[in-house]
Design a protein that fits this description.
The complex is a heterodimer of chains A (265) and B (184). Chain A has nine helices and two strands. Chain A is an all-alpha fold. Chain A has a single domain, classed as Orthogonal Bundle (Ribonucleotide Reductase, subunit A), CATH 1.10.620. The termini of chain A are far apart. Chain B has 184 residues and is of the alpha/beta class. Chain B has two domains: 85 residues, no CATH class; 84 residues, no CATH class. Chain B contains six helices and six strands. The chains are: A mainly alpha (265), B alpha/beta (184). The interface between A and B is medium-sized, with 35 and 31 residues.
């Protein structure tokens, strides 16, 4: 079996339609995530006229993201040699994450059905999986477990609040359960980053830079941040629990403001 | 014969075909038996949002975001089913408003979200009978968001969805308000 599996060859059935990064970024109307666009962004709540439809689209994005997270964590178990590349205990954590992500896929399918969404109703973009293809295990772990799983914390908390405000216990509790797992995944990333770069400052710096690149990709248009116009709200408390420092959280918030400003100007 | 005018008649940001949209609108108007009417359809191709509204009832002018006509699997490309459904829902609103049973319905801008969604449910249910709307679960999710995730709201949804051409505005208002009172 080959190592570093390309995103183009991920297995999907005929229900899934893929949108390339080029198509997404070249959309002159503004790149988007979860059904929202660069225009008139606002916090995702049920009170918006299109709130339920935006939540539906986002839920589909979460679903395909869970599939890719499962694929990414699975590849990390296989792509690297035990002891020479990574410790066995780290692979064990990745195997546990696969188990979580598989369960999240099933929960997401059930939630999509609950919200009236069909599998494959929206295009799939594989940006998340591509971040999980970095050949350096430390950079991969940082990009996926700290940047993307960190984003998942923000997304799940926003969706949980959406369910709470709407009085939808199914959405609220499912998101809460998945959120708990995401905090664990990010904590794994924080712990292994520290462990694997203990005596290698340069590698640590490179890994944190890669994390910023990934964070920036997912902050476009001010999609995620802590201002009222950000559809997905940055979740400070859960990020702290997952090993983020206040300074790191401030950086992400600032990055989002800059991304939003770039879109406006 | 319905006369359809698409504005603009060519697109630069999306891969829409004005003639195709006009044909879809014409088919929908025929199914809804709109007769000899002129329909102007204004499309804002710069927006990938899905907003749509009746801009004018007489003459008929519909205004939609490009996103309302988009294929969600292939952004920037026309989704024919979605286009037909969006146009049909707006035209059905016009047909309703022209009937005496809807004379008391508030202006579109004054409709609160639950009432709008309840009316849309009644509309989508009738379109479903005509083969023009398929997303029943999506409509139910929207209805639940505005009327509660409860058995009472689900019963109300089922009633509105399955009531072809026999409700008036007072019925829709009573059902929507009734659900919300039950929530308190």
């Amino acid at each position: 079996m080959r190592k570093i599996f390309p995103a183009e060859e991920l297995a999907r059935d005929s229900r899934f339609v893929r949108q390339s990064n080029e198509d997404r970024m070249n959309d002159p109307r503004g790149a988007r995530v979860g059904g929202s666009t660069g225009e008139k962004l606002s916090k995702l709540t049920p009170n918006l006229p299109n709130g339920p439809d935006r939540a539906r689209a986002l839920m589909h994005g979460i679903f395909v993201g869970e599939i890719q997270a499962l694929e990414g964590a699975g590849r990390t178990c296989y792509d690297f040699e035990t002891t020479t590349d990574v410790p066995f205990a780290m692979k064990l954590d990745m195997a546990r994450q696969c188990w979580d992500e598989a369960r999240h896929c099933e929960i997401s399918v059930a939630l999509a059905e609950h919200m009236g969404t069909e599998i494959g109703e929206f295009a799939e973009n594989t940006l998340l999986y591509q971040a999980a293809c970095n050949p350096d295990p430390v950079l991969r772990l940082t990009g996926v477990n700290r940047a993307l799983e960190g984003l998942a914390i923000d997304v799940f908390n926003t969706m949980k609040e959406f369910g709470s405000i709407a009085g939808d216990p199914v959405l609220e509790f499912c998101e809460d359960w998945m959120l708990a797992d995401e905090v664990t995944h990010v904590k794994m990333g924080s712990d292994w980053l520290r462990e694997l770069t203990l005596n290698d400052k340069e590698r640590l710096t490179k890994a944190l830079e890669f994390q910023k690149v990934v964070d920036r990709l997912f902050s476009f248009n001010g999609f995620r941040g802590e201002d009222d116009e950000n559809p997905i709200q940055l979740t400070r408390r859960f990020r702290e629990l997952a090993g983020f420092s206040d300074e790191e959280i401030d950086d992400i918030a600032q990055m989002s403001r800059e991304a939003a400003a770039e879109t406006v100007h | 014969m319905t006369e359809i005018q698409i504005e603009p008649n060519s697109f630069e940001m999306v891969f829409f075909d004005a003639e195709k949209i006009a044909n879809l609108a014409s088919e929908v108007a025929q199914i809804l038996e709109l007769g000899d009417e002129q329909i102007k359809l204004r499309i804002d191709e710069t927006s990938s949002m899905g907003r749509s509204k009746v801009e004018s009832y007489e003459p008929i002018i519909l205004a939609v975001d490009g996103g309302a006509f988009e294929n969600t699997q292939r952004p920037r490309y026309l989704g024919e089913t979605r286009t037909s459904e969006t146009i049909a829902r707006l035209l059905m609103r016009i047909i309703d408003r022209r009937s005496p049973g809807f004379a008391n319905a508030p202006e579109d801008d004054l409709l609160d979200l639950p009432l709008r969604v309840a009316w849309d449910t009644y509309t989508a249910g009738r379109l479903n009978h005509l083969g023009l709307s398929t997303q029943k679960k999506r409509r139910q999710y929207q209805f639940r968001n505005r009327h509660g995730f409860s058995d009472a709201a689900d019963e109300a949804f089922t009633f509105l969805w399955g009531s072809p051409n026999k409700l008036v505005w007072a019925d829709i208002e009573r059902i929507s308000v009734g659900c919300r009172i039950a929530l308190v």
